[in-house]
Amino acid sequence: MRAVKLITPHVRFLIYYDSREGIFTLHPSILKSFIHSSAVLKLSHKMADTLSEADKIRNKRLAKLSSQATSQSSSQPPLTSDPTRGQTVNPSTQLNSLSPQLESSQPAGNVSSAPGSLQPSPPLELQQSGPQGKRARISPPSTDVPPRPQSTPSLPPKRPTVKPEETLESFEDRTLGALFKISLREDRQQDIHGQPLVYLPGIKDDLKEQEQGPRIEVGILDQALLEAVSNLGHQKPLDYLLPCWKRVQRLCKGFRKSREDDPKFTIVREARRLCVSYCIFAITLPDIFGLEPSDRSLLKPYLLLDAEDDSGIDFDLLSEFVKRFDEDQAVKLAFIAAVEEMSGDLATMTINDDYKPYVSALRNLVHHAAIASALTESDRFNASQMPAIFEQVTLLGPWFHLSPLQANVTTTYFSSPKTRDQAFILNSQRSLRMTQQMLSSDLLDVINHLIRASKDAREKVLDWFATALNINHKRRAMQVDSKTVSSDGFMFNLTTCLDQLCEPFMDAAFTKIDKIDLNYLHRNPRVDLRDETKINADQQASDEFYSKTVDGTSHFISEIFFLTVAAHHYGSESLTSKLEQLEKDLRHMESTINKFELERHKWAQNPIQLRTFEEALKKYKDKYDLGLSLKYSLQGVLFDETWQTRSMQFMRYVIVWLLKLVSGVNFPREKLKLPLPEDPSDVFRCLPEYFLDDIISNFKFIMWCMPQIITATQGDELVMLCATFLESTQYIKNPYLKAGLVSILFRGTWPRPSGGRGVLVDLLNSMPFATEYLLHALMRFYIEAEFTGTHTQFFDKFNIRYEIFQIIKCVWPNLTYRSQLSDQAQQNLDFFVRFVNLLLNDVTFVLDESFTAFITIHDTQVELSQGGNSMDTTERQEKEEQLTAAQNRAKSYMQLTNETVAMLKLFTEALADSFTMPEIVQRLADMLDYNLDAMVGPKSSNLRVDNLQEYGFSPRTLLSEIVDVYLNLMEKENFIFGVARDGRSYKPKNFEKAAEILRKWGLKSQEELQRWDELQKKVKAAKEMDDQAEEDLGDIPDEFLDPLIYTLMEDPIILPSSKVTIDRATIRSHLLSDPNDPFNRAPLKIEDVKPDTELKAKIEAFKSERKAVKRQALLQGAAENMDLSSG
Questions:
Q1: 29 φ, ψ to 5°?
Q2: What segments bear the compositional bias annotation Low complexity (predicted)?
Q3: Domain spanning 1040-1121: which superfamily?
Q4: Mean pLDDT for the chain?
Q5: Whole-prediction pTM
Q6: Contact in structure between 1040 and 1098 (CB atoms under 8 Å)
Q7: d(C-alpha 68, C-alpha 269), whole Å
Q8: Are 847 and 854 contacting, i.e. CB atoms less than 8 angstroms apart?
Q9: Are 739 and 700 a contacting pair, CB within 8 Å?
């Protein structure tokens, strides 16, 4: 039997050849390791194809893993020298006895053939080993390094001696031993630093049998690593190999080559290659090291370690692994399996746990495009359509699931929240924001590398985002079951990530806005838009629109834009709504707890019931604490100025895109003009409502909580959006969206917390677009709000109009707006009359409701103070509830009263002529007389209640403003007659009482008091004249009387549907509030009425006749008086 060495470019196998049995057998040191993995290899001299299929596959994979070495092999087999025998041997001649198949499949060498480069292990020689059988003796190492020159003689004795240069063999032995921490000496199992070395007795025995010293060389490094790794005990192969890699890599990077083909560097490079190969074996072929198969990833624990850790996997090693992906799919699959396992582990964790290694590991991996692309091929990447588990079972879901909003995390930041002071809460919120910001940055980094890895990877990431959004439509339902949707933290992370992906194309000049392709909506869009409520289209029109298809592919900007709009709707804006609702719920819970506390005495005498009461109360308080912790956490996340600024920038982009879409001009490069085209485009009509709802929700929240982050530029587009859609209200179907636009402007007028003016005040007063269009837009929606079509329209209109009043008050000092109001009154009379009529309706209603509520409060307070102690519990409770309801009504209506009266004062001061038109002057006079009577008349004492200031009611201020309205209109004759003709509420004593109060409290100047006295005289004179005229007419025939108000008609007309004759002024006044015929409720327009000329002639004849009779009577009386005087 003789030994030969089979050299592959990957692994060297030492093989025995037995000529008697005609077989090749593996070297015992290799055989020992392969026995563990059932990989005993026998190669027949005559039948080389008897290898098992498993062995063939393994050998093939081993060959792939080390394919880099083949590029270093020379085309001619290098010569090996045997120092002990003084002869040179060509390795290829040692394999002549192998089968032709083996000869053709094995390269001749595995290292560089350059002069001085390292050569493979020396050949084996067989020797008899007693009863143990045949063993191989490793002959002295061979090398093709040229003979080194003999050391030169010493220099003259007086000069210091030069230390001899280290030989290549010594360098090789020392370096490889230090790099791999291995030793061939039993007495040296620690290095000079006391760190353990792996003793290799098998290799030592082989060298000893070959009569060689214990020296480590590259030729035996394969065997050495296999023996070292196979005998680690409880350690895993990578526990040993990864620190080896770190040492090898450090040496490679810092190595100073003496020349390009430095043989020492070749040694180090070969060591590096073998280390990488064995690391891959440890991941993909652990059984060759004697490890039992396992379902757990062998790679994952090391990915979770820091890259700088000795056992961590650094960027360079990952790069080496990636180079093998195309050659060996097992390497790629190992990484996918490792990340899948990390994902599964992370799904059960929160940020209270040690989650950072998982985030760092994923970031490190996706920095390699090949790994990033491979991860998107995982079966788990987009594995679920179930919203409740999507963030647990998809590959990326658990990373996005991490959030400070997780239930058990909020209580960590805000434990015992009710007992915490403001400083603690603010500090905790800052800490929470920092955590969220770091997490958002990490997630963005992951997604950024995934979408840049490859086109397929990008498409799969976009699909994953779209799925996460499409399955969470229920998050915006009125009542949300948290078990049927994804978590708040998950959705918020999606939103922040998509926001940041939009940043590159959101430049200030909007240069890339044209890349948002409207045809995206017709290319089977990823975002599911079909079932969403549309801005101005029913389901049938929507289905027809989205059923159209257009060829082509959409730009990445289009994909991200539509995804981000949807993410805001289902993500961050749902959190804003949740915070608003949570604050209401917490106020209710706090009130309930206080009521429970007051009832504690009821159970004091019964210990069992008291204990039950205490337990129930504690549970309720715990629930309150949990809600309070969530509130503080939501505030911490949503009050992040950095994120809100970025979010607002995106919303600004959406605003500009919408204005560009509806205007039909190249906005913002071209000027926007109003009104818009009468009919909106199909694209705009069929967009989901949330395109506007997101903007409104976002800016309402910012105006409320963070107005300081709004810049003038962002405010410009916001004001333009509000004015545009309030002027062209037909573009939007939902009245709440239009009301939201008013709310944005209203909140923009609020004074800042620091005392400065509202963030939009300067823009509203200086921006040309606002001064040209805003006032008319507000008046138009004021009118439209009368009929919103909702079940709460009666109350909604007052809230809307209150906000409109505030906006108008803000801009009223600007003369431009006053001039516009005057122009409207002259140029668009019907429009202005409708506006004024509704204003009067509101003043009348809210004053009446306020005074009624105060009367109820007064009477109830008197009842409770006088007989409350004698009432039974039920009766007293009913009275208290009645009092509370009346107090709430009074607060609400009094706020509206103050604003509507103030607005009436402003308008009548500027436009007295417009407010004394025939259609409205009598109603205005009646309203003023009625409220003056309520405030100073006999029943005014009923308005006196406790704590008037609590309701916002200042009787003196209100009286002063009502008097101002009288004074503003006193120069108009028809107004004076209107006051005098009010038969229900006009009382001269009320005017006298008002003058007394004004003087007593100094509410008016002396000049104003004189004018008030003059007004009284004018009204008194008008009253006398009117009474005389009525007396002169006598009994009026019924056919001449208006059927609604029973006064003599001046301009009778015939209604087209009911055929009823009525005075023109009466029906015009009616149509201001009701667009229907008052007699049969048929739709009616003033243009459709016909004048009743015949009746008008009769009325004129009647009036002339009566005047003639009266004149004749006066003349006759005068004549009689003359006769008497003369007689």
A1: -65, -35
A2: 66-84
A3: Zinc/RING finger domain, C3HC4 (zinc finger) (3.30.40.10)
A4: 83
A5: 0.80
A6: yes
A7: 11
A8: no
A9: no
Structural domain boundaries of the chain?
640-813, 841-1033, 1040-1121
Query: What is the DSSP secondary structure assignment for residue 214, as one 8-state letter?
Result: S
| pLDDT higher than 90, residue 570 | yes
Rounded to whole angstroms, what are the CA distances from 193 to 151, 190, 310, 311, 448?
32, 8, 16, 19, 44
Cα gap 756→752, rounded to integer Å: 5
Q: How many helices (H) and strands (E) does the chain have?
A: 43, 13
d(CA 41, CA 24): 9
Q: How far apart are CA 173 and CA 194, in angstroms?
A: 19
The pairing of beta strand 1090-1091 with beta strand 1061-1063: unpaired
Token couple for 692: 């506007």
Residues 6+ apart with CB under 8 A from 192: none
* Chain centre to alpha carbon of residue 583: 20
Per-residue model confidence as pLDDT tens digits over 185-236: 888 888 888 889 999 999 999 998 988 888 999 999 999 999 999 888 888 9
List C-alpha distances in Å: 466 to 475, 564, 691, 847. Answer: 15, 10, 17, 53
CA distance 204 to 216: 9
CB neighbour class for 343 (10 Å; exposed up to 12, middle 13-18, buried from 19)? buried
pLDDT in tens, 18-33: 433 444 444 443 433 3
Given a contact cutoff of 8 angstroms between Cβ atoms, the answer to whether 284 and 321 are in contact is: no
- Spatial contact of 786 and 838, defined as CB atoms under 8 Å apart: yes
Q: Which residue has the higher pLDDT, 1030 or 1081?
A: 1081
- Helix 455-470 and helix 422-453: axis angle, to 10°? 140
- Among 1016, 1061, 1013, smallest CA distance to 1040 is for 1061
CA distance 1127 to 925: 50
* Distance in angstroms (rounded) separating the CA atoms of residues 476 and 758: 31
Q: Report the relative pairing of strands 42-44 and 23-26 from DSSP bridges.
A: antiparallel
Q: What is the pLDDT of residues 282-313, one digit of tens each?
A: 999 998 888 888 889 999 999 999 999 999 99
Q: Which residue has the tokens 């039948």?
A: 47
What DSSP string runs through 965-990? HHHHHTT-HHHHHHHHT-TTT--HHH
Rounded distance, CA 508 to CA 714, Å? Answer: 10
Specify the higher pLDDT residue, 370 or 54.
370
